[in-house]
Design goal:
alpha/beta; Udp-n-acetylmuramoylalanyl-d-glutamate--2,6- Diaminopimelate Ligase, Chain: A, domain 1; six-stranded mixed sheet
């Protein structure tokens, strides 16, 4: 068991949360019990995850997608009221890290996606490793984009959407950014990547990929961001002797 504020401070420090300009609050979003024995992690603090936390008697919920996003309505009504009421009624804290968890060099979403898929990390295109969001590297050996897509499907248990650039043959150089980073495709192409992997796709992404000459793989926003929060939860469990459980709330997007 650990004091809530000690645990929050450890996460803030480890992820360098204060250094990121983000669209939301990174860190403690809703204060619950002062003492934490059980931490439930998940990608998004949806009602289904909160219900699982209540059933498990968690003291804290730790997520990548929390609440209080820039430009969203500030009134606590409807869905937002029900979610926050669930936390307050059961004295559960909500801890959330967005960009800091994407960027972390060891247990961030990008780092963990590369580890699960066996990609060799070479650096970040948009900053230092651990600070940037657009990562670059190489596949273990050159092969076709269809083989890469099959590997992603098997690992993430979700069939990705693949936009092939006909003029590109076998691939080795890769760039990736988990979540909704499809508009980084131009930066990925200009860096020399032959394929760019992210979570989502927009209508314009197809034309950019085909005309520039870079394969694009949309592997799922949720699917590409499962692993960072799990790694953070396991780190907390090891460092502070708290129970950790990850719950994957199904999301095809």
């Amino acid at each position: 068991m650990i004091h809530r504020d000690q645990l929050v401070a450890a996460c803030d420090h480890q992820l360098r949360a204060a250094e990121f300009k983000d669209f939301t609050i990174n860190g403690l979003q809703v204060a619950g019990s002062e003492h934490v024995k059980r931490i439930m992690t998940g990608v998004t603090a949806c009602q289904a995850l909160l219900d699982e936390a209540v059933a498990w008697q968690a003291d804290m919920v730790l997520v990548h997608h929390g609440y209080f996003w820039k430009n969203e309505p500030v009134a606590i009504t409807g869905m937002k009221q029900r979610r926050i009421k669930t936390l307050l009624d059961h004295d559960i804290s909500l801890l959330a890290y967005h960009l800091p968890l994407d960027a972390h060099a060891e247990m961030g979403n990008n780092a963990e996606l590369a580890r699960h898929l066996g990609w060799k990390v070479e650096g970040c295109i948009d900053g230092a490793l651990g600070e940037g969001l657009l990562w670059s590297g190489r596949l273990p050996q050159p092969h076709s984009v269809s083989k890469l897509a099959a590997q992603i499907a098997q690992t993430l248990q979700r069939k990705p959407l693949v936009i092939e650039a006909p003029q590109v043959g076998d691939i080795e150089r890769i760039a990736w950014c988990t979540g909704g980073a499809q508009d980084m495709i131009t930066d990925a192409y200009e860096s020399g990547a032959q394929v760019f992997v992210s979570g989502e796709i927009s209508e314009r992404t197809t034309h950019l990929a085909r005309e520039m000459g870079i394969h694009y793989i949309a592997a799922g926003h949720h699917a590409t961001e499962r692993y960072g929060v799990q790694a953070l939860g396991e780190w907390l469990s090891d460092e502070y002797d708290v129970e950790h459980r990850f719950v994957d709330i199904d999301n095809p997007a």
